[in-house]
Design goal:
Length: 382
């Protein structure tokens, strides 16, 4: 089968990884994939290698102009899609959703090609909530129209599907499909001993987080818990892997409360080293998450055989089974999070048991990129 993958995603973070993994999964299944995009991602791991100027431009222009540019992109995108369709004759257009981007629907209808849309965030809902939309009515209308007129719209959680249904998207058009992992890169057999040695964590209980450091991630709670519960006296260390705008504040708190020997800040880590860092952790943490997301990091934690501590909210319960593959705490409650962390620290056997079950559930429930690619292709044959 020939797949035409269209996106205008500029980011090289989790979005780039998602694109890279799905393209790789289609190809591993034996299908041809042609990519139509504004940017080019590194074939080795989803990092951006072409199109950086678009990202820089979007940071500096006012929001209203960016929204208008997202509309005018359809002229360019439609032309490029039509050109690729004539040259490659694809059986499927697979498109990652971006605000006000409807050229994929138009191209699919013109040439009679099924178009599957992948939505990882309800952008009208998200941007409106943050107060970032100038033409909110247009974004709302276009999002509803785009998702309603795609052959199928794939969303990553039931919570997100419900949001779209409330906006008027027909439920029959939507399919819930969680994020996944590549089990060759994330599995319990990977050793983290060299990471433990590197950071002086041998013989310690290691709590860990991997991701982008934003304030809404609740990372400040983790430092406060380490300080207030005096977990270092129980042989506990905290491993924070990543970088982001909250990084300076976290460093200042750690310095002010004498936590630098207890909390390890790795800074940015290459994608090829992430699995080893997770392997070095005994208990993995997701302090906060938006109410409709399917955190890729949690599934990676599970694939590595780790017990995860995460907020008790509907979208998280779709992937984490309380007391079976992880433990859940009251969202936004530092005391609730602390109680769950301390319970796991006191009972490492329980943590290991849930971690083993989590790894099994990843396979049993099909949280795999290749399984997702197979489901997508099945959608157009039904």
């Amino acid at each position: 089968m020939r797949v035409l993958y269209h996106h205008r995603t500029q980011s090289g973070d989790a979005q780039g990884i998602h694109i890279y993994e799905m393209v790789k999964a289609f190809r591993e299944l034996g299908h041809e994939v042609e990519i139509v995009a504004l940017v080019e991602l590194d074939p080795a791991g989803g990092r951006k290698i072409r199109g950086r100027s678009w990202e820089r431009l979007s940071r500096w222009i006012p929001g209203w102009l960016y929204e208008l540019m997202s509309l005018t992109y359809n002229l360019y995108g439609y032309r490029q899609l039509c050109k690729a369709i004539r040259a490659k004759r694809p059986d499927l257009i697979y498109e990652r959703y971006a605000l006000n981007t409807f050229c994929g629907v138009l191209a699919g209808k013109r040439f009679g090609i099924p178009m599957i849309r992948e939505v990882n965030a309800p952008l009208y809902y998200e941007q409106q909530k943050l107060g970032k939309l100038t033409f909110a009515w247009l974004a709302r209308w276009s999002e509803r129209w785009i998702c309603s007129h795609s052959t199928r719209t794939v969303v990553v959680t039931q919570v997100m599907k419900d949001l779209f249904v409330e906006e008027g998207v027909p439920t029959r058009r939507m399919v819930v499909m969680s994020n996944g992992i590549d089990p060759q890169h994330f599995h319990p057999g990977i050793s983290g001993e060299h990471i433990r040695t590197r950071y002086g964590m041998t013989g310690r209980t290691v709590l860990g987080f991997v991701g982008w450091f934003r304030k809404w991630h609740g990372l400040e709670f983790l430092l406060e818990i380490m300080h207030e519960a005096k977990l270092s006296k129980q042989g506990v260390k905290l491993l924070l892997v990543g970088d982001g705008p909250a990084y300076p504040d976290l460093i200042r708190y750690a310095d002010a409360h004498d936590l630098r020997s207890t909390v390890v800040f790795t800074g940015p880590v290459g994608r090829d080293e992430i699995a080893a860092h997770i392997a070095a952790m005994d208990i993995t943490l997701q302090p906060s998450v938006t109410e409709y997301a399917c955190p890729m990091k949690i599934i990676e934690y599970m694939g590595m055989g780790k017990c995860t501590v995460a907020p008790n909210q509907p979208n998280i319960r779709e992937i984490v089974e309380e007391g079976v593959t992880g433990v859940l705490f009251q969202p936004g409650s530092k005391d609730s999070m602390r109680a769950q962390i301390e319970a796991l620290v006191r009972n490492p056997a329980m943590s290991r048991r849930m971690g083993r079950t989590a790894a099994e559930r990843v396979y049993a429930r099909g949280f795999l990129w290749k399984a997702n690619a197979e489901r997508v292709l099945k959608l157009i044959t039904e």
